[in-house]
Amino acid sequence: MGRVAMIAGGMTQFAKARRDSTQEELIMEATRMALFENDLKMDPLDVKRMIDGTIVSYFSDHFERQLLFGAIVRDYLGLNPIQSARIEGGGATGGLGLKAGYEMIKSGDASLVLVIGFEKMSEVSTAKGNEFIAMASDTDFDFPVGGYYTAYYAAMATRYMYEFGITEKQMAKVAVKNRNNAQYNFFAQTNAKNPYATKSTSGFITIYDVLKSEKIATPLKRLDCCLMSDGAAVALLADESIARELTDKPVIIEGVGNGTDTMRPSDRPTTVGGLIKEDLLLPHEKPEWYEDMVYPGLHSFRAGRKAAKMAYKMAGITNPLEQIDVVELHDAYTSSELQTYEDLGLARYGEGGKLIDSAPFDDEKGVFKEINPKLANRIHVNPSGGLIGCMHAVGATGIMQAVSVMWQIQGKIEKFYGSDKLQVKNARRGLAHSHAGTGSDVTVFVLGRGW
Amino acid sequence: MSVGEKYVSKNRQPLVNEIPYSILYKHSYGEVSPFFVGLSKKKLLGTVCRNREKHRNGKDLLFLPPRADCPECWQR
Fold first, then answer.
1. A418, B21: Cβ pair inside 8 Å?
2. Are A160 and A220 in contact (CB under 8 A)?
3. Do the Cβ atoms of A267 and B65 come within 8 Å?
4. Which residues pair with A113 in a beta bridge?
């Protein structure tokens, strides 16, 4: 069986509320873009008729108030009676959806699969929305004492700061980077030019804005937290031979990884084994770096490390910082972006703060000296703006990020985002990361130029 | 200019229906019910699996929050 490629993608404008369209209409918006705008070498409707599998990924039955939404979506897109499955895995729903699409092709059951992700979170109040999201925590144990995700991440961020000396300022820098990147991404919820944007919560920010924003759960403030969004994103996956018939620029899925951890973060420090014993060292890491480290504790995401290790092995990555040009990762909170640098091996455990500090920063103005700054003079993380700047319409998020990486590699960022500011020059290989819960499920994809 | 601009909707007057939704769940805490009863009496209860020869670290395992079944050896 040959390799699997990602050849096309599309997404909607993201917004706090997209009342103009239903979920299936949003999906059509993204799907039409995927087939009509990605320079496919065949008539889009002929491509549509070649699709022989779909994956529908959405997170919450509570948000949508509709079970079996996949049936509505397939019907609306005219993709019956071909095979399909619904995938759900919290915040990693999009990444797991992509993995299911990849597996459908890899197994030989399909050769051209449309992976569809969406969420409409605006139909309930923001408070009810936070409650629905928190139902992706243990509702017997964690929910009654925390009740919302920012509280869970605040506990983990507090431990992370204590363990490694990370500062609120380092965390705030992540928000500045991602939110200001988003100002050059037409799709982004916080981009003031997005016709659906809420003007009061869009536009550029400084580190002072982040540090002064309302406390949600100490140390996390409003601008440390991701968005809640309406929108859809789709990706078209193909086996390599069909991919080459349909596009001159196939992006190969070089590595796929998935890791898991306990539902309750409090159960992690006591797990049997540690980083070294569980064989979670990456090829470029040395055991002596971590001999005294409790792992994963509350400070690290073992699922993210496991997913990265699996994907790197498959893709032949021996030093991610040297071999990957662009990363889109799940910045649910500013703290989790720093933690994820470490899980992905872009920085040593404990040195995520140093990685964000490596980018030139104007302390007086409180912003990075350039948009989409290079970290470690090498790598770009979340040019799209990520979950903090662009969107978090849960079922669509992992797909939005993987499609963004694909467009980076294809050199099509200006065409889709409407600005070349976020295009990573000569991007050959990228990583897309998708993360659920307090770190219970994580996927990692390594995507590479296939031409 | 982004290709997204031509996909912007012209619909400015969607019909929005307000649908109330209320549910009562009768949720059982199952085998770990004593833990929750204990909380109401200001007691913190855990569970221990003494099946140590079947555990990778050779030790008894304490679970708090409690579990009726041991994830390491699958014994109750």
1. no
2. no
3. yes
4. A53, A237
Q: What per-residue confidence (pLDDT) applies to A224?
A: 98
Percentage of residues in chain A with pLDDT exceeding 90? 94
Structure tokens at A90: 């919290």
d(CA A263, CA A334): 21
Residues in B closer than 8 angstroms to A415, CB to CB, are: 2-3
Domains and CATH numbers, chain A: 4-124+229-237 (3.40.47.10)
Q: In the structure encoding, which two tokens stand for residue A24, read together?
A: 């299936």
Report the alpha-carbon distance of residue A174 to residue A189 in Å, rounded. Answer: 17
Whose structure tokens read 């309750």?
A264
Domain boundaries, chain B: 20-76
Q: Which helix (H) or strand (E) holds A353?
A: helix A352-357
Task: Find out whether A134 and A146 touch, Cβ atoms under 8 Å.
Answer: yes
Q: Where are the alpha helices (DSSP H) in A199-259?
A: 207-212, 240-246
Could you tell me which residue, B72 or A316, shows the higher pLDDT? Answer: A316
The position carrying tokens 């022989």 is: A52
Average pLDDT, rounded, for chain B? 93
Contact between chains at A272 and B72 (C-beta distance less than 8 A) = yes
Amino acid code (one letter) for B38: G
ipTM: 0.85
Q: Is the pLDDT of residue A271 over 70?
A: no
Closest-CA residue of B relative to A29 is: B7
DSSP H or E stretch at residue A238: strand A230-239
A254 vs B: CB within 8 A: no
Whether A12 sits inside 8 A of B56 (CB atoms) is no
Tell me which residue has tokens 């992540």.
A174
Return the pLDDT at A392: 98
What is the radius of gyration, based on Cα positions, of chain B? 26
**pLDDT tens digits, A397-407:** 999 999 999 99
Quickly state the pLDDT bin for A274 (edges 50, 70, 90).
confident
Angle between helices A23-37 and A69-77 (to 10 degrees): 40
> Tell me: the pLDDT tens digits for A376-401?
999 999 999 999 999 999 999 999 99
Structure tokens at B20: 């109330």
Q: State chain A's maximal CA–CA distance in angstroms.
A: 60
pTM, 2 dp: 0.96
CA distance A390 to chain B (A): 14
Per-residue buried b or exposed e for A177-191, using 16+ beta carbons within 10 Å of the residue's own CB? bbbbbbbbbbbbbbb
Segment A435-450, tens digit of pLDDT: 999 999 999 999 999 9
